[in-house]
Amino acid sequence: MTILVTGPRGNVGFVVAETLQRSGEPVRLASRSAASACAESVAFDFTDQRRGPGL
Q: In angstroms, how far apart are the furthest CA atoms of the chain?
């Protein structure tokens, strides 16, 4: 199962994502801009209603 980490560029999200990656867990990073060299990433915005209801 892939773990979705929201806010991977923030103080807490960064540490969570880094820790999961180091332990070998499959991680997907969700942030407003989907640029990451270290994990699969996806553009994500809670306020964007075009993608349907939020989480």
A: 35
| pLDDT tens for the 55 residues of the chain, in order | 889 898 888 899 999 999 999 999 999 888 877 665 566 777 777 777 776 655 5
Q: Which residue has the tokens 């806010």?
A: 7
- Expressed in angstroms, the distance from the first to the final Cα of the chain is 17
DSSP 2: P
Domain boundaries, the chain: 3-47
At 18 the three-state DSSP class reads helix
User: Is 0.85 surpassed by the pTM of this model?
Assistant: no
Measured CA to CA in angstroms, residue 8 lies from 24, 39, 45, 54 at distances of 17, 10, 13, 18
